[in-house]
Amino acid sequence: LQCYEGLDANAALYEWNYPRQMLELRLEEARGQSKEEIGSNIFGPEFLLDRPLLKAIQHDGEAPPVLLIDEVDRSDEEFEAFLLEVLSDFQITIPEIGTVSAKQVPFVVLTSNRTRELHDALKRRCLYLWIDYPTFDKEMDIVASRVPDAQDELSRQVCGFMQLMRTRDFYKKPGVAETIDWALALMTMGATELDPGTVDATLGCILKYKEDIEKIQEDGVPQVIDKARMLRERMARQTEAAS
What are the contacts of 130-133 at 24+ separation with CB within 8 A? Predict the structure, then answer.
C-alpha cells in the first residue's frame, strides 16, 4: 500500500466495480428479469475490487502474507487512525457482504520518512527499526545488483563520492536511489571514471536543491573528488585491517 496525502479507506480496502455493476444491470434488464430481481446480486464478491488491505486480510495461502505500508507518514492523520483500527483487529466489515476476518495475521511492515510524527498509539504496536545509510561495501553490493553493467572502478568512485556527500550539511542528503540513478546516468554518458566536468554536469542526479549544488561548486569539484578518493582509500584500509 503506497500512502499519499488524501488516501482514504476505499483506496486502501476495497471499491465496487461500478462499470461492471452497470453492465450487469443492463444485462438483467435485457433478459427481462423482474424489478425485484434486477440489481439483487450486484454487491457480491465478484463485483468487489480488493485493495492491498483487503487482499492481505483475505489471503488464504499456507504462509502468512507480508503487507508493506509504504511511507505511512505521508497519509493524513484520519487515515492513520483508520489504519490503527484495521491493524488492531485484522478484520473489516463490508456492509453488503459482512465481516471479513484474517485467516492468518499478516506480517506488516510500515515505513516512514519522518515527514510528520506518527501517533504514539501506532508506534506502540510496532517494533522500531532505524535503517541508516549503507556502508561503502554495502552500497557497492547494491550498485552491483541494480547496475550490473557498471565497471567496478566507476562503482567504487561513485560510492566513495556518495559516502562523502552524506557527511556534508545538505538540505537533503542523497540516498541510495540517487546513487543508482547517478551510476545509470554515468553509464549512459559512457563515463568510466569521475572527472570534474562529468561530476559538475551530473550533480543534479544526486543533489536536489540549488543551494546544495552551489556548496559543492564553491568548494571546487576537483577538490571534492580528491576528498572522496582519500575517504575511499581510508575506508579500504579500515576494511583490510578489520579482516
Answer: 133/166, 133/173, 133/175, 133/176
Residue 63, sorted as left (phi over 0), alpha (psi -120 to 50) or beta, turns out to be beta
Element of type H or E holding 178: helix 176-188
**Sign of torsion over alpha carbons 127, 132, 136, 139:** positive
End-to-end CA distance of the chain: 41
pTM for the structure as a whole: 0.72
Q: How many residues does the chain have?
A: 243
Over the Cα atoms of the chain, what is R_g? 26
- The residue whose grid cell reads 573528488 is 225
Q: Specify the DSSP element, H or E, that contains 107.
A: strand 107-110
State the Cα torsion 6-10-14-20 to the nearest 10°: -110
Q: Are 16 and 95 in contact (CB under 8 A)?
A: no
Q: pLDDT tens, position by position, for the chain (243 residues)?
A: 999 999 988 889 888 888 887 887 787 777 777 666 666 677 777 888 889 999 999 898 889 999 999 999 999 988 988 888 888 888 888 888 888 888 889 999 999 988 888 889 888 889 999 999 999 999 999 999 999 999 999 999 999 999 999 999 999 999 999 999 999 999 999 999 999 999 999 999 999 999 999 999 999 999 999 999 888 888 878 777 776
**At 119, is the secondary structure helix, strand, or coil?**
coil
